Every structure is written in structure tokens, then in C-alpha cells.
Amino acid sequence: MSFLSYFISGVSLGAVYAIIALGYTMVYGIARMLNFAHGDVIMVGSFIIFTVVSTFGLNPFIGIAAGVLACTLLGVTVERIAYRPLREATSLAVLITAIGVSYFLQNVALLIFGSNAHQFTSVVSLPNLVLAGGNLTISSTAIVTIISCIIIMIALTAFINKTKMGQAMLAVSEDRGAASLMGIDVNKTIAVTFAIGSALAAIAGALLCSAYPSLTPYTGSMPGIKAFTAAVFGGIGSIPGALIGGIVLGVIENLSKAYISSQLSDAIVFAVLIIVLLVRPTGILGRKINEKV
Amino acid sequence: MAILEVRDLEVYYGVIQAIKGISFEVNEGEIIALIGANGAGKTTTLQTITGLIPAKAGRIVYDGTDITRMPGYKLVSMGIAHVPEGRRVFAEMTVLQNLRMGAYTRKDKAEVEETLKSIYHRFPRLEERKNQPAGTLSGGEQQMLAMGRALMSRPKLMLMDEPSMGLSPIYVNEIFDIIKEIHKSGTTVLLVEQNAKKALSIADKAYVLETGRIVLSGDAREMMDNEQVKKAYLSE
Question: Which of A98, A234, B133, B233 sits most deeply, having the most CB atoms within 10 A of its CB?
Fold first, then answer.
């Protein structure tokens, strides 16, 4: 029973990674850049939800709505100010800028909220699920997280396959020049991608901090890196890949914490990444990326 | 009346000047051919017109509007379609999805379906393969898809870049027949080709590009008899 319990909380952690990984993978697929500030957007979203819920005492749903709205604006603004001017620049310049944005967000949060951990009140107030005569308890946060992840995946897949904007995203991810010849505003498409990824980051922040309630300006950094790992693991640019990568990573992390060593769990997670990339450099569902000259 | 007018256009790749001040015009209802060797600047010219590459100097006027600095995506709804070099179909999207991308800027849903029907009529093979990823089509079929996709926007002016490149002779003839058809149905065509013989056989007027300059221009049929052109571009 304890295995099942570790496994389910691993899936739940993995579902958070998967939601974050969507932001990395969509931005990479469409804008061809690694947005290393994505993890810190989670932190910003969490602080906004924290402020609305704990400081102002408002309903958690209003908190989440505020967090989603603020992160969407943040994502679009960062893209407009920091990344768009570098559209034709080398990928190294963009990468360094993203790292700069990451430090900027962390330090602004440090100035406003200080470095002490804040106690995040869970946005999930449902009772835990007790099964097998009390031998197996599944936290309501885990259930809500997994359901949210499934809903997001279905909604996103439908958005991409059924809407004009979704199809434009596919076109831009395949060939930016050809997409613009179709009349697609590539800049707008990239901005929408950032908006969606950042909105998802706020939701991920709410779920993450509900399960792990200690909130600091560095809260987003490690989950961000792990979700990036999940995205690469699943095949960066692939949405189902983000889901698979996230879940696998979460389960590995939780099971190694439970059965091997909680200190070594991160090392094990990254070791698995290295092995997967040695065997399959494009990740599980990744395709060969043709560099266009 | 000139639907497209290019004046003293100059384009650079970094410090290298690719287009050294060319001027030409395309009149409504014409087929204009730009011919020349590899690296003469033909593709660059088309890409500058549709905003994929910025112009350094000069003017591009389309239908009375200066489009020199206009972002390329806005030109589609103004009536310009560009069939790019190497076709550049969206390989992982299906044939039908590719065609729908061509109608991206159109809001008249019912009429889009009509256009789609007419394109299937013109290219029956595209209808047969409509649910297949475009990347699985043969080169000739991809060229037809690229043309069909461009036609989905119902363009007034169609720019075609090397439509016969890499195709078998049977397909080359078919593609040129299609270009003639497209022209007949009222679309103005600006054609870039290395296959000068074929291009001149269907064009009204032609311009010969050499290392970023127009070295010769005139009636396409007369050009076929020009000794210089014969020697440089029509030798078999």
C-alpha cells in the first residue's frame, strides 16, 4: 500500500512538472528558444495567489484568477521587452537574456517579500480520500492536481487542433517564414504562446505550493529546472512528451525519495535524464530537429 | 496598369550586396519572368517583396500602396501570394491543413469551401491525399500543394519561386500548364525560374538578372531569339 501511495503522489508531482513543462515545450517549439525564466513565473504567480488569499483573505479562486491574469501579462511583457528584440539574434544571446530575466524576477520578489519562507495556504480545501480501510490515503491536492493536468492537456490539444490560432502555432513551429507567407502574424503567435505558457505556470504554482507550502523567491527555480528536464526527457517541442516526461520524472523522484535516499533523489532524476539523452538525444517523443540555414 | 512596381531596390546580406538597384514592373494580367543563374538574386528579390528580407534602399509599390517596409504577413490579405523556393509545405500537417493555412486571412468561410473545391478540381491528387502529412508527398505533389495553398488566399498577384526545381520532366510540363491556367483565370504571375526556356515560353515579358543587376529586359518571345540569352541560358 505504501508503494501505491508513493506512486500516486509521484504522479501528482509529475503532473505539476508536466503543466510547467508545457510552457517550456510550447515556447521552444514555436519561438525556438529556451525560456529559463519560466520557473520564476511560477514563483510570481504563487506570490500573487498568496497575497490575494492570505494577505487580503479572498477566495482561493479569485487568487488563482489573479495569478493567472498577472502571469499572462508578465509572460507577454517579458516576451515583448526582452525576447522579441532578439528574434534574429543567436540562441546564446537569447538564453543569457532569459537567465537575466530569471534573476531579475527572483530579486524583485526578494525585495518585496524578503527571503523568509511564507506559508502558502492550500487552494484545495477538500477532504483527503481514504481507501482500503484506512491503509491508503490520497491527498485531495494530489487528486485535484492530476485532474487539472488531464483537463489542461485535453484543452490544449483541442485548442491546437481545432482553432485557427492553434493551427497558426503549428505552422510557425514548422516554418516561421512560410507561416508569415500565409498571412500569419508570427510575433502575435509567439506572444500568445507565452501567454498560454505563463497562465499555466500560475496554475502550476497554485498546485505546487498547495502540496509544498513553503514559498520563497526561489520556489520556482528547482521545479522549473525539473520541468525543463521533463520537457527534454519527453522530447522538447512535443506536448504529449511534456506529459510523459513530467509524470515519469515525478514518479522516479518520489520513489527514489521513498526507497533510496531523499538526498539523492534529485541526483537520480538528473542521472536518468543524462542516460535518456545518451540513448535517445531527442527524448522519448522528440523528432530530429532540422536546423534551417 | 502596374500592379507591382519595384524601383531601385537594394538588398544586403550583412555587408554583401545581393541586389544592386533593380527596377521592374508587373502589369495586371501579365506573366513576368525573372531569369538568371544561381546566385543572381532572383529568390532574394521575391523574398524582399514579401517582407522575408528587409530592403536597404528603393521602393516596392503594390496596387498603389508602398509596401517596402510593410510586415510580410499583411500582404496576403492585400492579394499577394508567394510560392516559396523549395515549396516549404508544412511537412507534419496534412494536405488539407496546409490548404487551410493558405486561407488563414480569409473570413468568408462558405466561400473558402468553394475555393477548396476548385483547388481539388484543379489538383485531384491533393484531394486523394488530403489526410496525408504533406511531408509524405512526392516533390511534384508538394509543388502542387504549395501552389494550391497559395491559391487558397485568392491572390491577385502570385509570386512563384523556381516551381520546376528538382522535378521530373513530366511534372515540369504539368506545373507550367498549371501556371498558364492560373494566369488564364485572372491572376497576375511573377515567375522566377532557372529553366529559362520554359519560363520564356509562357511569359509576356522577362528580365534577366546577373549578380544582383538586371542586364536585359524585354518581350519574352524576342528574348528567346536573343543570341546572348540563347548562349547563356538556353543551351541544353
Answer: A234
Q: Is A109 on the interface with B (CB under 8 A)?
A: no
Cβ atoms B150, B83 nearer than 8 A: yes
B72 Cα to chain A: minimum distance (Å)? 6
The model's pTM is 0.91
CA separation for the pair A230, A194 (Å, rounded): 19
What is the DSSP pairing of strand B65-66 with strand B16-27? Answer: unpaired
Interface of B with A (CB under 8 A): 50-52, 71-77, 81-82, 84, 88-93, 97, 100-102, 104-105, 149, 153
Is A183 near chain B, with CB under 8 Å?
yes
- Could you give all domains of chain B from N- to C-terminal order, each with its CATH number? 1-43+51-79+155-236 (3.40.50.300), 89-153 (no CATH)
pLDDT in tens, chain A (293 residues): 688 889 999 999 999 999 999 999 999 999 989 999 999 999 999 999 999 998 898 899 999 999 999 999 999 999 999 999 998 889 899 999 999 999 999 999 999 999 899 988 888 878 787 877 777 888 899 999 999 999 999 999 999 999 999 999 999 999 999 999 999 999 999 999 999 999 999 999 999 999 999 999 999 999 999 999 999 989 888 899 999 999 999 999 999 999 998 889 899 988 988 888 888 888 888 765 544 43
Contact A129/B at CB under 8 A: no
Instruction: Answer yes or no: do A182 and B71 touch at CB < 8 A.
Output: no
How far is A230 from A277, CA to CA, in rounded Å? 12
Strand B2-13 to B213-219 pairing: unpaired
Does ipTM surpass 0.90 in this model? Answer: yes
Across the interface, which of B77, B84, B97 has its CB nearest the CB of A183? B77
Query: Quick check: A185 and B71 CB within 8 A?
Result: yes
Q: Starting at the earlier edge strand, list the strands of the sheet with B57-62.
A: B16-27, B2-13, B57-62, B65-66
Residue linked to cell 508602398? B66
Contacts of B67 in chain A (CB under 8 A): none
> Which amino acid is located at A271 in the chain?
A
Would you mind telling me the total number of residues written for chain A in this entry?
A: 293
Largest CA distance in chain B: 52
